[in-house]
TrEMBL record:
It comes from Paraburkholderia tropica. InterPro entries: Glyco_trans_9, LipoPS_heptosylTferase-I, LPS_LOS_Heptosyltrfase. GO terms for cellular component: cytosol; plasma membrane. One of its GO terms (biological process) is lipopolysaccharide core region biosynthetic process. It catalyses: an alpha-Kdo-(2->4)-alpha-Kdo-(2->6)-lipid A + ADP-L-glycero-beta-D-manno-heptose = an L-alpha-D-Hep-(1->5)-[alpha-Kdo-(2->4)]-alpha-Kdo-(2->6)-lipid A + ADP + H(+). This is Lipopolysaccharide heptosyltransferase 1. It is a peripheral membrane protein. Keywords: Cell inner membrane, Cell membrane, Glycosyltransferase, Lipopolysaccharide biosynthesis, Membrane, Transferase.
Length: 335
């Protein structure tokens, strides 16, 4: 096994959680070269993985929205890059038309994808001459690792290794001068949001613990929500609008990350930060983050998790301690 192509095109959280397949493949086949095909909106995320040799990207999502000629030319040019090397195996762990087309165009001896019933779009099956087994009964993230191992002939017996290396440059914000909780209140769908009042109560409890509160945002609507939360939390800081790299840098500089089911919270988990992910309308068992004493997902996907459950999660991943190391009493919510 000399060269392998991983195809996982979108979205931010899914791409982040797929990254451990690189370390898995290289552990099974020392010296193998791993390339990755991804939408250009998430190319920098993949580039942060120390094990990836080439990041192959094209503006697929942007072209679908705007249909610009410049984006079409970029996609066309990317095909020659895709075909610059021959692969021993092409692994499509996305399973939709766009990922299947990439897998089909790549120069691969074997092209692996999901069984028809496990594909996101059944028509994608045309691209594969090898199949993973039925999707395993586990979360989506471990499932991608298991499926890749099935294709390449190894088993998964190690924790996920994301191999993330965030670049540090002159555009990073100054490091916080006190322990900081980064609050990702925004999410892609309205039904996935946690109530502003809940955020206010949780943030006040975190301040009582000695944490500063920072509120990132990425759109005018998210900025408005950040202002609503800040109005309930004396001393909270609304960050300026940041690039993806700047957000990643800020995550690294934070003591705790709390947020909804959104990509940046997955990134916090991958960067080994104490992380809490709040689920309101999606499945925490299938899509959540978990690591002993570090990452916890709360919520059943059908009800709004109460603040008390979030506070209990904080106590588990970021226990308060006195200066001598003695644990403090558990947090209590404020009103």
């Amino acid at each position: 096994m000399k060269r392998v192509l991983i195809v996982k095109v979108t979205s931010l959280g899914d791409v982040v959680e797929a990254l451990p397949v690189v370390a898995d493949v290289q552990r099974a086949y020392p010296g193998v070269i791993v390339d990755w095909a991804v939408d250009d909106a998430f190319a920098e995320i993949v580039a942060w993985n120390a094990g990836v040799d080439r990041v192959l990207c094209a503006p697929l999502r942007r072209f679908k929205k705007a249909r610009r000629w410049s984006d079409f030319k970029s996609i066309w040019q990317s095909i020659s890059e895709l075909r610059a090397h021959r692969y021993d195996a092409v692994i499509d762990i996305h399973g939709v038309y766009k990922s299947a087309i990439i897998a089909f165009l790549a120069r691969g001896r074997r092209r692996f994808g999901y069984l028809a019933q496990d594909l996101g779009e059944r028509g994608a099956a045309f691209a594969y001459n090898g199949r993973f087994g039925p999707r395993p009964k586990c979360d989506a993230w471990l499932g991608m690792r298991i499926s890749t191992g099935e294709a390449l002939g190894y088993t998964i017996d190690t924790p996920p290794d994301f191999q993330m290396r965030i670049p540090r440059d002159g555009n990073a914000l100054p490091a916080p001068d006190a322990p900081t909780a980064l609050i990702f209140h925004a999410t892609s769908k309205e039904e996935k949001k946690w109530p502003v009042e809940h955020w206010g109560e949780l943030c006040r409890a975190l301040i009582a613990r000695g944490l500063r509160i920072e509120l990132p945002w990425g759109s005018d609507a998210e900025h408005a929500t950040a202002r609503e939360i800040a109005a309930l939390v004396p001393g909270a800081t609304i960050l300026p609008r940041l690039t993806v790299t700047q957000v990643a840098q800020r995550i690294e500089d934070s003591a705790l990350v709390v947020g909804t089911d959104t990509g940046f919270v997955h990134l916090a988990h991958a960067l080994l930060k104490p992380t809490i992910m709040i689920f309101v309308a999606t499945n925490a068992e299938h899509l959540g983050v978990r690591a002993p004493n570090r990452s916890i997902s709360i919520g059943d996907g059908h009800h709004v998790p109460p603040v008390s459950v979030a506070i209990d999660a904080v106590d588990r991943v970021y226990p308060a301690r006195d200066a001598d190391g003695t644990p403090k009493a558990p947090l209590v919510s404020s009103v």
